Each structure stands twice: as C-alpha cells, then as structure tokens.
Amino acid sequence: MAELDLRIDYYPTHEHKGIKYRRGHVLPFGATMVPNGVNFSVYSSASTSCTLVMFERGEASPFAEIPFPDEFKIGNVYCMIVFDLDFENLEYGYRMDGPYDPANGHRFNKDTILSDPYAKAIGGRDTWLALPNKDEMYSFRSRLVFEDFDWEYDRPLQIPIEDLVIYEMHVRSFTMHPTSGAKYKGTFAGIREKIPYLKELGINCIELMPIYEFDEWEHSKLHPETGEQLVNYWGYSTLNFFSPKAGYAASGRLGMQVDELKTLIKDLHSNGIEVFLDVVFNHTAEGDHRGPAISFKGIDNKTYYMLTPEGYYFNFSGTGNTLNCNNPVVRNMVLDCLRYWASEYHIDGFRFDLAAILGRAPDGSPLNNPPLLESLAFDPVLANCKLIAEAWDAGGLYQVGNFPAYGRWAEWNGKYRDNVRKYLKGDAAMVGHLAQAIQGSPWMYPTRGTTAGINFITCHDGLTLYDLFAYNTKHNYANGEDNNDGCSNNESWNCGYEGETVIEEVIALRHRQMKNALTILLVSQGVPMIYMGDEMGRTQHGNNNAYCHDNDINWLNWELKNENADLFVFAKHVIAFRKAHPVLRNRNHFTHTDYMHTGFADITFHGVKPFQCDFSADSRVFACMLNGQYAKNGTCLDDYIYIATNSSCEAFKLELPLLSNGMCWHTSVNTGIVDAPCHFDIGNEPVIQNTVQYVLGPRSVIVLLGKLKNTNPL
Amino acid sequence: MAFIITSEISEGIAKLTLSGSLDSSSASLMQVEIQKVATQAPSALVLYISELEFMSSAGLRMLIFAKQKLGTSVQIYIVQPQGQIVDTLQMTGIIHSVHIVDNYPAQ
C-alpha cells in the first residue's frame, strides 16, 4: 500500500460536500478498489449526464450524490475515483439523465437510482424471502467485494467432458428439507456439508441452477385457491450477472456470500467435482415496457435490449424482454462476466439458458455466424471451460443438432430425452432412435463427436424421473395457473395408475423403468446428466413446471434415500460402471468397422439373434455390443460390453454373440431380475452359463461384460 | 464496542489479543500487528478472541492475510471464540484454515 500511495495519480482533484474525488479510469467497468479509494466506471451511450449515488449500508437516504463532471466522461463512459470510502459498508448506484422517448428506445429517468451492471454484489435480498421494504428509494444496491480469496492451489479441474457425470441441482432445494440434516439448510454452505453424499453417488460435476442475484419476490403471488405464497423460486430472471445470490448464502446477511460460494467451489474441486453454472443471458428481471427500471433499462435501454421498431421489447425469452447479446457492448459484458466467473470463482463450465437467443441479431433474426457465440468459443480465458447450450428459445428457434458450435459448444440433447422417453414407454418405431441415442446421436452430430450432446432424460424443466413413470399428464394446479402452464407433451407413462398407488405391480414396474432409464443414460455415448433426486425417486407429484414453489414440491426429501434404497444403490452402480469402462466414454463416434482388425467392429447391433437387429416399427428389442479394444477410440483396453433393451411387455430369450480367446459373458445389470439384486458389484459379476437363451425380461435392460472368466457363476 | 488489539511474541509464538468489533474500520489495526509479528518469523499465531464480538468480511480477510503473510507452515490458533464468530468461520469455510481451541497450549 505504501508504495502505491506514492503514485501521483491517486490524489483528489475535486471535492463535493467534503468528499474528495478525481477523474477515474474507464476500465475496468464497475466499481474497483484502488489505493485509498474506489474507481467507478459506467457505460451509457445515450444519456446526457450521470450522478453517482452513495449510501451507507442499509441506510434509507444517500450520504452523497456526486454528478460526473463533463470532463470525467471519455467516449460513452463515465469514470470517477472517490476517496476515503468504507469499502465494506458502501452501497452505490447511478442516476442517469437523458431523453424519455420509448418510441426511439430511450427510457431515462433521473429520479430512479440504478444498479451498476458490473456490480460484484447486490444488496436488498440478503436473506431469502425476507420481506422487502417497498418504500425504499433504491432496492437492489450495488456493493463492492473483496477479491482476495485464498484459493491456495485450486484451479478448474479440466476433467475431459466425456468423463463427466453431471448432476443438475438447485442450491436451496438440495438441503432445505428438514430431513437433509444440514446445519446451513438451503445454502452454499449446506451443499458443502453434503459433499460426502455427492462423492458416494459418484457424480463428478454439479450444475447449479441460476445463482446470479435474482429477486425471489418477482411476480410473487398467492395461489388463488389455497392462498399459498408462490415465488420466483428457480431464479431464471437475473438482476445482475456478476453477483452471486446472497440469499443462497448462510452468511449472505453478513455480506460474505462471495467467500461462502468460493469455499464451496474450492472444496468441491478438492473432492474431484467440477462446478457448472446455469447462466441466463437471454433476458433480465426488468420485464417489458411495464416492468421496473432496475439497471439496464435506465442506463442504456437501447443498447441492452432487443427492441421492436416501435420501441417495445422483443420477447424471445417468454419473459418480457430479450437481452441484446449481439450488440458489441452487451457482447463484451457477457464476455467480461464469464471471464470473471471463470477466473475469480474457478467455474468449470457454463450452461446457457435459451441459448438460441444468443445467436439472434439485434432485430431478432437468427445470425449465420453469431459473434457472441464465436467470441465465447475462442476466448482465451474461457479456453478450458465447458460451454453448453440449451439450443432453443421461446421464439421458436430450435437448434438442437445445428447450434453454431465452433468446435467448442456442446448442447442439451433434447431429442435424446424425447426419444429415450418414447422408447421406454413402448412407442412403436423407436428402436432406430434408441440406437442413435446410445451411440451419442451420430446422425445429429456427424462431425462434432459424441460430446456435442449432453444426454438427459429429466432436468429441472419437466417431470422428475419418478413422475415420468407415475403420471400420464402434468398436474400443475399447485402453480395457480389452472394447469395451463408447463409442457403438455411429456412422453410419460404412469405404468397403469395415475399418481400414488399401493398396487405392488405398478410400484415395481415404476422402479424397473427408473432403473432402465438410468442404465440407458449411463451407458450412452455422450455426457450424461442426472437431475437432483432422481437417484432416489424424488417426486413433484406430477408437477412439470415447479418454478414457483419454496416447499416440499422442490425440496429434496432425504428420507427417500432409505425408502428407495434399491434405486439409490442401483444409481450408484451404473455411475460407477460408466466410470470403470472407458469404452462408454468415447469422444469420437463409432465407425461400425473393425479398423484395428480385432475380430469385431467397434460397435455391432443385435436383436434376439446376434447381428440381427430388428429396426422395424413393431420391434421393441435393441441390443448392441461395444468392442473394448476400441475404448477411447482405440487408445486403451476395456472389456466387451453388451447392452440389450426391451420396451415391450413380453420376455425374449436372447442368443448372445460368441466371444473368443477364452472370454465369456458376465452379468452387470439385469433390471428384469425381480426377487434378487439386479446388479452386481464391479469385478464380481457372475458368469452367464446359458448364452443361447439368456432371458431379457419384459420392460428390462441388461448390461453384460465380456471378459476372462470370473469365478462366480450365476 | 471499540476494537482493541495487543500483541506480543513469546518463545517464538505470536500472540494477539482482540476485543470489540473487527470490521473494515478496524481491520487495518490488525493488519499492522500481523505485519509487526511477522518480522520475527513466529512458529505459530495465537489469537485470543473471547472478547471479540463481531467479525466482518474485512475481518475474515485478516485471517487470510495472516496465513499468507506468515506462510502455510505457521498454524493459526483461535482461542475461545464466541459462537457467532465460529458460525461465521464455519459458513465461509475459513474454519478449515485455523484451529479452534479452548486454551493454548492445550491443557
């Protein structure tokens, strides 16, 4: 500090009511600690003047308002250093003056105090669901954070994407239930307490649903019939892109959410678990022309939002507005934001909500070569981050299979989800689609390899895995929208009874179907993603759009781990099986040839008879054999793996392919086994004696290993 | 409550006694004391904080600063912290970088 004090450019040149300041630096944007002061820098192209407004933390009225002198504006950037501020107790914002002319895209109003788009923390929602003071003159207050976290030797893990097993989760839902046993329920610290569980399950990546600061009270309402409080629970509505949600931190009320989140990430990394963020750059919490001006709308509306020629908001997000991502200024903000999270928080990857919007021009038209997506793909700071697109938007742009990838982007494979669901419920003409899904969708990604697709059967959006086999239709009345919200086409099947039942056959079939789904997911080429709680049969009681519930509908009931112990143990097994067998984790597609002259092609298709797969519309049986000598595309050795699936209600007797060199088939998984364990520990798989009449039960999946003989015959 | 800090070095052990509130207005005082004891390369740092009532984010930074200034081989002992301070250390995970003890040396 002493040496820095000697710099001659860090002395005040101006004074305003006892507060000393000087011209600042235009970069970086935001509020940055400098010797003895804070550098404030904010961009606005169409404003006529700007005033810095500063509060003591929590105070109703500002202690100072300093207009930026004209000479402090360089280009379209206002910059100022203010000295002798209390970093920890400072809250700040801006008044931006300029035309209020919506028809031409301008909505300036100097009476409104606006958050800094580059603020690193936001005050106002420090404690989850604490009642806000609606009379406050400034609700979402920009704050400073210390960037001196002690990361020690931590860095992003850089696990190859094909080796990941992603676990999508909601911070609050994961530990909020009374059964979680966590001390700090519903928080980042709560997740840290559950790291041993995540390790036990075997996943090596968590994907956090939005943790950027949002307002849980946004669009809150009471259920028209039950009176229950409904809130913006999931948080897909960003207030600020650089700030972690304080209400997700046990220490948020103390302003320590940054430390708490970084500690979580550091501890996850030290346990071999990567951290992905679900980021929402397609829209903000400011809504359409009727929504509040919180930040972007008042700072430079025409820059930050896609506007119609009449000055209204394009609504490709379905939430009122659309961020103008391919405007160069906004594009740079997105880049700055992701670089910040990658460098300051050591984030390993990002999943972009409604990412098709990121490929739209300011007038809404899809771009052939979207500059933002290209910039992200080739950004030097993000070079080792995984980039995953939800390749569609609410405006009808559906890009699964053809998202502009630049050799970098992966995408949520929505077609995988739909096709596997259809196959599992027994639809006709699905065997070919299942073959594609298990191979990593080579028809969809012929040049991009298997890792272009994030395979999933369930995610936060839609039914849980249990509900997929317990409900034919959505049951969203609890959302207060008369069951009109949420997708109506779920490709689900209730196994014979809608909802909860005591019919043992139905319960058993549901468990088998969940195991079938988990097995197919974990043996498919590509990157598997599991939704939180599916490993223990979590239910949302048929609700496929639980965005508004801060209660049991979303909270993970940890008792299910015991109640559905068979399912949980099974999920652990198939995850461990995937990790043990590199032939399941190829980066490139199979060639269907034996280019290394091993005796078998890298993958072969089968049916009831070896090498005779029936792809006709009436077929429900599919089998394939993966040649272990082609593991990791021929770079390492593995066992042979034979996978067979049956979505019909009748059993079949399979003739298995003949192996050579003393190898024989062993059973790892057989979900059709009813009265005994349906999976076998790795290394202790029983040998199959009858390889010409191996029973594939109704609605079952088997996974066999071809290797030298174990000594444990079935 | 005003922040008060005293320091001493005894047999190679740096001992700081803190009371009051450790926040952004007082953290610099602790930083000075840490820098002072660091010049004598202590083998351990012991913080007597039974009278410390509050530790803010700026206070936490002083623990990080101490660890980095003294080196990772120098253990930091926190003697008789109040429950609220322990809670803060737990929530933020800093507790893994220090030793919470009732007495130093242990009896």
Description:
Chain A: One of its GO terms (biological process) is glycogen catabolic process. Chain A: InterPro entries: GH, GH13_cat_dom, Glyco_hydro_13_N, Glyco_hydro_b, Glycogen_debranch_GlgX, Ig-like_fold, Ig_E-set. Chain A: This is Glycogen debranching protein GlgX. The complex is a heterodimer of chains A (714) and B (107). With 714 residues, chain A is an alpha+beta fold. Helices cover 19% and strands 21% of the residues of chain A. Chain A has 14 helices and 32 strands. In chain A, strands 14-15-20-21-22-23-24-25 form an 8-stranded parallel β-barrel. In chain A, strands 1, 2, 3, 4, 7 and 8 form a 6-stranded antiparallel sheet that branches. In chain A, strand 17 and strand 18 form a beta hairpin. The longest helix of chain A has 20 residues. Chain B has 3 helices and 5 strands. A 5-stranded mixed sheet of chain B has the order 1-2-3-4-5. Chain B is globular and about 30 Å long. Classes of the chains: A alpha+beta (714), B alpha/beta (107).
Features:
heterodimer, A: 714 residues, alpha+beta, TIM Barrel, Immunoglobulin-like, 3 domains, 8-stranded parallel β-barrel, 6-stranded antiparallel β-sheet, 19% helix, B: 107 residues, Transcription Regulator spoIIAA, 5-stranded mixed β-sheet, Glycogen_debranch_GlgX (chain A), glycosidase (chain A), amylo-alpha-1,6-glucosidase activity (chain A), hydrolase (chain A), Ig_E-set (chain A)
CATH topology of chain B: Transcription Regulator spoIIAA
Q: What string, H for helix and E for strand, traces the elements of chain B in order? A: EEHEHEHE
Number of helices of chain A: 14
- In the predicted model, the low-confidence regions of chain A spanning at least 5 consecutive residues are none
CATH architecture of chain B: 2-Layer Sandwich
- Low-confidence stretches of chain B are none
The name of the CATH superfamily of the largest domain in chain A reads Glycosidases
Give the domain tally of chain A: 3
Summed up, the helix count of chain B is: 3
Amount of beta strand of chain A: 15-25%
Based on the structure, what is the oligomeric state of the protein chains?
A: heterodimer
Overall SS class of chain A? alpha+beta
The number of distinct structural domains of chain B comes to 1
Radius of gyration of CA atoms of chain B, rounded to a whole number: 12 Å
Q: What proportion of the residues of chain A is helical, as a percent range? A: 10-25%
CATH topology name of the largest domain in chain A, in short, is TIM Barrel
The appropriate CATH architecture of the largest domain in chain A is Alpha-Beta Barrel
Tertiary shape of chain A: elongated
Protein name (chain B): Anti-sigma factor antagonist
Domain STAS (chain B): 3-107
Family (chain B): Belongs to the anti-sigma-factor antagonist family.
GO molecular function (chain B): anti-sigma factor antagonist activity
